[in-house]
Design a protein that fits this description.
The chain is α/β, with parallel strands linked by helices. Helices cover 41% and strands 20% of the residues. It has helices at 16-34, 47-53, 61-67, 101-110, 175-192, 208-224, 235-244, 256-267, 307-323, 327-346, 352-355, 363-377, and strands spanning 4-12, 37-42, 70-75, 79-80, 83-84, 115-121, 128-130, 133-135, 144-150, 161-162, 168-169, 197-202, 229-234, 251-254, 277-281, 286-290. The strands form four sheets. Strands 2-1-3-16-15-6-9-14-12-13 form a ten-stranded mixed beta sheet, sandwiched between helices. A hairpin with a 5-residue loop joins strand 10 (161-162) and strand 11 (168-169). It is globular, with a radius of gyration of 20 Å. Bound molecules: 3-isopropylmalic acid and manganese (II) ion.
């Protein structure tokens, strides 16, 4: 247990600052209700910052992330005249990158946040936009699995890779990174203690590096986790099964780009991106974020769904509580999740994506409603 927790908040671009501000209010309230001291430092950053300063954040910001007990990220990606802002060659990366790369991709790689943990969980009452209509299509309880996305390599490094059979691929997948992420997935399946099953999702019928990922998965699984069922799926087929039969899955693990895609696809069955959350977890650091991105067209309208950002606070509280053996944080995490679940099942104070434009509440109103529930539940 610590006296005080140092949190770096990176609001970023687009709707990032709005949803993160609602989330930080919830964190603040949790601090008051559960008597936990948080020192929160907000750092302006992302594509809009780059467009103005030709750097993605002030000098020394990465070091602050490194020193933080946890990081909260809003979203990055800024547009000028309808075009996404990329960094200039050589400033600071050799090749142009999405401006905001420092916060999302470089933080993941440099802080060694090797497991990107993305739950796909349908809360009761949550409706889906299918053919433009809001319906509850999937059943709660049948959609409850976790995507674990390898978070430091694959197509995200720009590096090539020599694989054991002597070929070179434009995709970097190493034994070390694969072993640790599949172990994370296997351990999670044990902790969840549901189907005791882990699905390896990849494109190993075509991509040699993915074949290597699958081989390491099988090897580690058979050797160290004989109590678990090992399951295999090609990513294209997995995408339709996760829509048709989400109840088949418990924990799914895959290379970086595969995990990126299947976590968005899975979100469809769990209320959409407005509720989807990701924890970037390493052995020493962690960063939590809504996975929806900066949605420039909705920015500044107080319209976006803040619940994914609020659930990323919940995930952060849970991770910090476990790491520092701090009951207060674990209780706070449970209550924040309960507050969100209650709001969802009541189905009244929600944003447009979950309730339609006519009945929609604003981003800030939904945030306040979570705060009210949290006060009642604490
Ligand atoms: C995500 C996002 C990022 C990614 C983008 C913003 C670079 O889509 O976190 O899923 O591809 O990882
Ligand atoms: Mn993504």
């Amino acid at each position: 247990m610590k006296q005080s927790y140092y949190i770096v908040a990176l609001p970023g671009d687009g709707i990032g600052p709005e949803v993160l501000s609602a989330a930080l209010r919830v964190l603040n309230l949790a601090s008051e209700l559960f008597q936990i001291d948080f020192r929160v430092e907000e750092i302006e950053c992302g594509g809009h910052y780059y467009a103005e300063h030709e750097i993605e954040w002030p000098e020394g910001s990465f070091e602050k992330c490194e020193a933080a007990d946890a990081i909260l990220l809003g979203a990055v990606g800024h547009e000028v005249d309808g075009k996404t802002v990329f960094t200039k060659p050589g400033k600071p990366y050799p090749e142009p990158q999405l401006a905001g790369f420092a916060q999302v991709i470089a933080n993941r790689q440099k802080l060694d946040l090797y497991a990107n943990v993305r739950p796909v969980k349908l809360y009761p009452g949550v409706k889906h936009k299918i053919h433009g209509e809001l319906k509850q299509v999937w059943e709660p309880g049948k959609v409850d699995y976790v995507v674990i996305r390898e978070n430091t390599e694959d197509a995200y490094t720009g590096e090539t890779n020599e694989i054991p059979d002597g070929r070179v691929t434009p995709i970097r997948i190493t034994r070390r990174a694969t072993e640790r992420v599949v172990r994370y997935a296997f351990n999670l399946a044990r902790r969840r203690n549901r189907q005791l099953k882990v699905t390896c999702v990849d494109k190993s019928n075509i991509i040699g590096a993915h074949r290597f990922f699958r081989d390491v998965f099988r090897e580690v699984g058979q050797r160290e986790f004989p109590d678990l069922k090992l399951d295999y799926a090609y990513v294209d087929a997995f995408c339709q099964w996760q829509i048709r039969n989400p109840e088949w899955y418990d924990v799914a693990v895959g290379p970086n780009l595969v995990g990126d895609i299947v976590s968005d696809n899975g979100a469809t069955t769990a209320g959409g991106l407005g509720l989807a959350v990701g924890g970037n977890i390493g052995d020493e650091h962690a960063m939590f974020e809504p996975i929806h991105g900066s949605a420039p067209k909705h920015a500044g309208k107080d319209k976006a769904n803040p619940l994914a950002a609020i659930l990323s606070v919940q995930m952060m509280l849970d991770w910090l509580g476990t790491r520092h053996d701090d009951e207060r944080l674990l209780r706070a995490a449970q209550k924040v999740e309960a507050a969100v679940a209650e709001l969802l099942s009541e189905g009244k104070t929600l944003t447009y994506d979950l309730i339609g434009e006519e009945k929609a509440s604003r981003c800030s109103e939904v945030g306040r409603a979570v705060e009210e529930k949290l006060r009642m539940l604490a």
